[in-house]
Each structure stands twice: as structure tokens, then as C-alpha cells.
């Protein structure tokens, strides 16, 4: 797996790093500062129409992306913009249908493209619309949140939510490229930056222990948007995900390790009406998975305690309220990893040693839930 150690950012445009995602539809993930102009190159010369999809909160970034996309030397390239709701409110069939209508009225063909500017919800939605319009058109992701950079924008997973659960309707549709401009993190609310670190920590537990060591040494700088520590963490986390999805695009087995902590996390999000940030739910979900591993004989309690200490050092939650088990269990039974009536969860058999726990007794699941109630 590629190692971003020693990568430093010293000024605008400096430290550009490219991490290639392999597989049936390879693409680059470019990480640096002041690199929004790279979007035009990733779109490709054949694109004549571009739809830039974004929430109101990143209108300035979207405008810069649109300007860059329209100045690639193709005078006849048309760039349209469409504002969508923020966060999970964007991931509905109604919003997707509105975007399909925009594409239809503008006569988008298979040689045209969508650019998603925003957080993970935006890349999920825009990727799904791109996957379903004419059975697939190009999409370039420009994540402006930490969560989007290290998770949602990389890997080709797209989707929308339904009343029954999160991301239950979707498609695998790799982007043509991903542009992670670290300068866009400057305006990200601190709570959102911290929440995104849960996904970074996750990649440490499943594949790269150096991430855990770095966070333990430098928790404050890990939470600082322009620090070299955070830049290093982002590069390491993206490298982990790029390796995994390059090996297993459609989540037949290996890619499931990226769902560490997510079975309970998605259930919490649904039960809480998506009022919890995704990363906050993932933090609690990882502690739950660690306790489940302890109770099933796969993990020592000190490793579970380390989960709590690392996450708490970043200001992330590690407990959940009691009295919600039945609602959580109902939601967990709808998890995408399940097969038939058998629940499947990702747990650890040691640091950087993820395994699948299939068909655990409900009582074991309930006991682990009580372990995290506080």
C-alpha cells in the first residue's frame, strides 16, 4: 500500500499528491492546496456539458470549479449549476428526480458530465444521478469536507436514502477523478472536521496502525485544518481506501472492512432521524464493534479501551443512550452486508486484522450494546 509519510504542504499548490485507484475503472485522487483547476483536466476533452451540483454553503467553491471547467480551451462547453439541500436532506429520490430533469432539459448525452462539490451527501447523490442517467455518465468529485475526502468521494459507492434505511438505493459508479483541495477545509465547521476524523481513525484500525499512533501523539494538530499532521492523515486514509476499493469495487468481501463500525452507526443515524453526524455515529459504532469483538473472544479489552481513548482525545462520542436497543436492532437487520437472515458485522481479531462475524446471537449483540450505554 502506498505510504504518504514525508509528504508535506508548504504553500498554495505545494505538495500535490496523486493516489491512483486501480480496478476495472481506474482513476486518480489528487490531494493538495489550491488545485480546483484540476477539475477541467479530469473531465476530459469530449465533455461538452457539465452540471455542477452543490449545496448553498459551498457556492464560492462551486463557482470557482465552474469557471475552471469552462476555461479548458473548449469554447462550446456549457457549464450549469444546481443548488441542492445540505447534508442527508439531499439524498432523496425527489432531489435525484429534480437533477434528472435538469439533465434532460439540457440534453445531456453520455459524453457529458456531472461535478459534485460538497460533502459526502453531495457525492453520494450526484454519483447516483450520474450512474443512472443514460445508464452512466462521467462524474468528478470535489469533496469539501474531511468526511468526503477520506470516505464518500473515493470508491464509487453512490446512493440515496429511503424511509427504511440509509443508502439502500444506489449503484457502484467510479468517478473519473477526485480533487481534494485541502484549502476548502478552512471554512468547514470544527464539529464537522472532528466528525470526519472518525473515518480516518477507522482506516487506522483496519489497515494502517501508524494512523492511530499519529493521532495519539498529535490529537490537537489532527483537528487543525491546515496542519501537516492532518494532511498526512488524509493521505494515509485515502491510500488505505484506494487500495481496498481497487481490489474489490463491488464489495464482495475485502471492501466490507471499510464498514468497520458502520452497522450500528447507520442504525443510530436512522433511529436519530439523521440528526447525528455520520462520523459521530461511526465513532460509537467502532466502540460497539470493539466490545462485540471482546465478548466474542477476538479482542483484548485493552484494545477496546484504546478505541475509546483515541476517539475521546479528538472530542468524538464513545457512548450511546440506553433504551433504544429494539429500534437499533431492527435497523441493523436491514444492513447491506447481511445475507438472508444472517447478520454480518466487521470486527477486529487484532489491530489491522479485520474479520467478518456472521450470525452472532442476538443476546451477544445486546450485551455489547449495554457495554456502550452511558
Layout of helices and strands:
Blueprint: E1 17-21, E2 27-32, H1 38-43, E3 49-55, H2 59-69, E4 78-84, H3 93-105, E5 113-118, H4 120-132, E6 138-143, H5 146-152, E7 157-162, E8 165-172, E9 177-181, H6 190-206, H7 209-217, H8 219-222, H9 228-247, H10 262-271, H11 278-295, H12 301-313, H13 325-332, E10 344-348, E11 354-358, H14 362-372
Parallel strand pairs: 2-9, 3-4, 3-5, 5-6, 6-9
Antiparallel strand pairs: 1-2, 7-8, 10-11
Give the structural class. Answer: alpha/beta
- Major beta-sheet overview: 7 strands, mixed
How many strands in all?
11
Alpha carbon gap, first and last residue: 38 Å
Regions with little confidence, pLDDT below 50 for 5+ residues: 1-14
User: Into which percentage range does the β-strand content fall?
Assistant: 15-25%
Supply database-style keywords.
374 residues; alpha/beta; seven-stranded mixed sheet; two-stranded antiparallel ribbon; 14 helices; globular; disordered N terminus
Report on this model:
It is a single chain. By secondary structure, the chain is α/β, with parallel strands linked by helices. The chain contains 14 helices and 11 strands. Strands 1-2-9-6-5-3-4 form a 7-stranded mixed beta sheet, with helices on both faces. It has a two-stranded antiparallel sheet with strand order 7-8. The longest helix is centred in the middle third of the chain and has 20 residues, at 228-247. The two termini are 38 Å apart. The relative contact order is 0.11. Mean pLDDT is 91; it is low at 1-14.
